[in-house]
């Protein structure tokens, strides 16, 4: 059975294992995220999201398969993107951070299901403008987000989360409001 819920302290070891699995694949050349072991993401990444009550997980049969942080915090680098909706009210913008899918669960649609959850979560909180980012090197994430209707609003060269020389792809999507009758 699959469920998406707020993360808990008990989930942290499984989330860290997901980070490690992804980093293992990066180091073996079977995945490209642009992440660096010991720099980002780390256990601290997950703990900070948990402490802020912004950590969410997709769990299937008792195992965390997907994790991410959801909040309204836009990183400073976003100021350099060419947003389609640059004047969107800040209180109506929701941001997805550090979305990870355990490689053991890849190809099952869990990443897409989690992004659908993110969109519904944002809409329920009155946020019609969605933003996220990924490393330009992460072609798999870029394909997924494009498939889910996200627009690339620009690539910002920067140091990001302690990783030097990142080409940060800023992505956005506007949700439709319900028609008022």
Provide a descriptive summary of the structure in words:
The protein contains four helices and seven strands, in the order βααβββαβαββ. The chain is globular. The protein is 28% helix and 32% strand. The chain has 181 residues and is an alpha+beta fold. The N and C termini lie far apart (38 Å).
Brief digest:
With 181 residues, the protein is an alpha+beta fold. Helix content is 28%, strand content 32%.
Give the SSE map.
Elements: E1 2-6, H1 12-28, H2 43-51, E2 55-60, E3 63-71, E4 93-101, H3 110-124, E5 129-135, H4 139-147, E6 151-160, E7 163-174
What are the salient characteristics of this protein?
181 residues, 4 helices, 28% helix, globular, alpha+beta, 7-stranded mixed beta sheet, single chain
Largest sheet: 7 strands, mixed
Distance between the termini: 38 Å
How big a fraction of the residues is strand?
A: 25-35%
Overall strand count: 7
Which sequence of SSEs, written as H and E, runs from N to C? Answer: EHHEEEHEHEE
Strands side by side in the biggest sheet: 1-2-3-4-5-7-6
Question: Over all CA atoms, what is the radius of gyration?
Answer: 16 Å
Give the overall average pLDDT: 95
Overall shape: it is: globular
Uncertain spans: none
Please count the helical segments. 4
What class would the helix/strand composition place it in?
alpha+beta
Classify the helix fraction into a percent range. Answer: 25-40%
């Amino acid at each position: 059975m699959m469920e998406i819920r707020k993360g808990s302290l008990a989930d942290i070891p499984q989330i860290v294992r997901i980070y490690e699995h992804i980093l293992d694949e990066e180091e073996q050349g079977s995945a490209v995220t642009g992440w660096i072991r010991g720099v980002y993401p780390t256990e601290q990444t997950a703990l900070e999201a948990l402490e802020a009550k912004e950590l969410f997980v997709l769990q299937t049969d008792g195992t965390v398969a997907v994790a991410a942080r959801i909040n309204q915090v836009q990183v400073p680098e976003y100021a350099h993107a060419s947003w389609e909706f640059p004047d969107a009210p800040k209180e109506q913008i929701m941001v997805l951070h550090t979305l990870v899918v355990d490689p053991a669960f890849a190809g099952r649609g869990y990443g897409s299901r989690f992004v659908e959850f993110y969109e519904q979560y944002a809409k329920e909180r009155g946020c019609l403008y969605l933003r996220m980012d990924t490393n330009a090197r992460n072609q798999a994430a870029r394909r997924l987000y494009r498939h889910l209707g996200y627009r690339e609003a620009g690539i910002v060269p920067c140091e990001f989360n302690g990783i030097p020389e990142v080409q940060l792809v800023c992505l956005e999507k506007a949700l439709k409001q319900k028609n008022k009758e």
